[in-house]
Write a structure and sequence with these properties.
Pfam families: Adenylsucc_synt. Plays an important role in the de novo pathway of purine nucleotide biosynthesis. Catalyzes the first committed step in the biosynthesis of AMP from IMP. One of its GO terms (cellular component) is cytoplasm. With 356 residues, the protein is α/β, with parallel strands linked by helices. It has 2 domains: 3-101 and 192-354, Adenylosuccinate Synthetase, subunit A, domain 1 (Adenylosuccinate Synthetase, Chain A, domain 1), CATH 3.40.440; 107-188, no CATH class. The chain is built from 9 helices and 16 strands. The chain has helices at residues 17-27, 78-90, 108-116, 118-123, 130-136, 152-166, 172-187, 232-240, 296-307, and strands spanning 3-9, 32-35, 44-48, 51-55, 68-70, 75-76, 97-99, 104-105, 191-192, 203-207, 245-253, 256-259, 289-292, 314-320, 340-343, 353-354. The strands form 4 sheets. It has a 10-stranded mixed β-sheet, covered by helices on one side. The protein is globular and about 60 Å long. The two termini are 27 Å apart.
C-alpha cells in the first residue's frame, strides 16, 4: 500500500521541517521528497556528520541521497537552482530533480520587483521573487516550467513581456541577470514531468514550506506568504494518486519564532544556547529573527485549521530545540491526540527521540 508522510510547520516558519524531512528520509531511503508550496525562499538546514546544506530549491532529502520533486504549486528560479545544484554536487548530494510542467518560474524581473517594491519591504519578503511570481502568474504574463523547454526564441519573447509588465527598461544589471538565467536553463539537468513519475514510489515524503500561521488565507494580513502552507496542496496530490494512507508530522520549536515583521502573540527577548548553526539570521529583506514563548493556544489553532484540509490515519508531533527549555514541553496542553511525539535537541541535528 502506498503511503504519504506530510510535514507541516505549525508556526511562522523555521520550525524544523528540514531536519524532520531528513529524519523521515533516513528511515525511508527509497522515497521521493516532494515540495508542495513556496519556492526558492526555503532555507531548510540539514546536517549529516560534517556535511551541512541549506536546502532552498532542492528538497531536504537531497543531502541524504533522495530525489526531489517540485509540484505545480511551487516556484523555481533557474539561477538559484543551478547554484544550489553545484553546491550539492560538491557534497555528494542527490541532484536528481523532477518538476511539474506547471510549476511557476521566477525571473530576474520578479526578483528585482520583490526587492524594490516598498510595500513588499514593509510587509516582509525573502527577496527571492516568490510573491511577485505568484502575483504575476495571475496576469496574462505567465511563465511555467514547461516554457523552459520551449524554443529559446519563444522563451525570450515571453521574458520581454514580463519585463514590460514590470516596466523595466533594459540595463546592465537586468542584462547580466538575464544572461545568468538563460545560461542556467541550458546547464541544468532536470526532468519536466507530471505526477505519473510519483507512482513508482511506495512512500512519498511531502515537505512543507514556512508555517500554517503564514498561510495566504489564514495568516494575519498583510504579513502573509503568497502560498497555501497547510496540507491543502499535498492532500490534493495524494487524492490524485489515490493515496489514502497518510501520516502527519506537525513541527514546532519549543519556543516561538518569526523572521521579519508581523504579529506575534508572546514576543520577548530570548537568549539561545548552543545555537551557532542557526541559519535564519538577519538579512536586508526579512530583517531580524524574532522570538517568543511557546503559545499553546496558537498551536491548537494551527492544528485544528490543518485538520480542515486533510484526512490522516496518523498524527505525530515533532518538537525541536528542546535544549532551550527550562521546563518540559506541555504536550497535555494540546487538544489533538497524537500517535507519537518526537523531540530534537537542536533545529539541525538528527538526535530525534520519541518522547511520548
Amino acid at each position: 500500500m502506498k503511503t504519504a508522510q506530510l510535514i507541516i510547520g505549525l508556526g511562522f516558519g523555521d520550525e524544523g521541517k528540514g531536519i524532520t524531512t531528513d529524519f523521515l528520509a533516513r528511515q525511508n531511503p527509497e522515497s521521493v521528497v516532494i515540495r508542495f508550496s513556496g519556492g526558492q525562499q526555503a532555507a531548510h538546514t540539514v546536517m549529516i556528520d560534517d556535511k551541512k546544506h541549506v536546502h532552498s530549491s532542492f528538497a531536504s532529502g537531497a543531502l541524504r541521497g533522495l530525489p526531489s520533486y517540485i509540484t505545480e504549486h511551487c516556484t523555481i528560479h533557474p539561477t538559484f537552482l543551478f547554484n544550489e545544484r553545484e553546491e550539492l554536487i560538491q557534497k555528494n548530494g542527490n541532484i536528481e530533480l523532477h518538476i511539474h510542467p506547471l510549476a511557476k518560474v521566477t525571473t530576474p524581473f520578479d526578483v528585482f520587483s520583490n526587492r524594490k517594491n516598498v510595500k513588499n519591504l514593509e510587509h516582509g519578503t525573502c527577496g527571492k521573487g516568490v510573491g511577485a511570481t505568484m502575483k504575476r502568474n495571475e496576469s496574462p504574463f505567465k511563465l511555467f516550467a514547461a516554457d523552459l523547454i520551449a524554443p529559446q526564441s519563444m522563451l525570450i519573447e515571453k521574458l520581454k513581456g514580463i519585463a514590460n509588465y514590470y516596466g523595466f527598461e533594459e540595463g546592465e544589471e537586468i542584462q547580466n541577470a538575464l544572461q545568468d538565467f538563460l545560461e542556467a536553463i541550458d546547464k541544468i539537468e532536470w526532468k519536466i514531468e507530471g505526477y505519473d513519475y510519483l507512482k513508482s514510489f511506495s512512500n512519498l515524503i511531502f515537505e512543507g514550506s514556512q508555517g500554517v500561521l503564514l498561510d495566504m488565507d489564514h495568516g494575519v494580513f498583510p504579513n502573509v506568504t503568497y502560498a497555501h502552507t497547510t496540507s491543502k496542496n499535498a492532500y490534493e496530490v495524494c487524492k490524485l494518486l489515490e493515496i489514502k494512507n497518510i501520516e502527519m508530522f506537525y513541527v514546532t520549536r519549543s519556543y516561538s519564532t518569526r523572521h521579519g515583521s508581523g504579529w506575534m502573540s508572546n514576543e520577548k527577548e530570548i537568549v539561545l544556547n548552543n545555537n551557532e548553526e542557526e541559519t535564519c539570521i538577519f538579512n536586508e529583506y526579512q530583517k531580524e529573527l524574532r522570538f517568543g514563548d511557546i503559545d499553546y493556544d496558537l498551536l491548537n489553532y494551527a492544528l485544528k485549521l490543518d485538520e480542515a484540509y486533510v484526512f490522516a490515519q496518523k498524527k505525530n508531533l515533532v518538537v525541536t530545540c528542546l535544549d532551550q527549555l527550562d521546563e518540559e514541553f506541555k504536550i497535555e496542553n494540546l487538544k489533538v491526540k497524537f500517535d507519537k511525539v518526537f523531540g530534537s535537541y537542536s533545529p539541525y541535528s538528527k538526535d530525534f527521540k520519541r518522547i511520548n
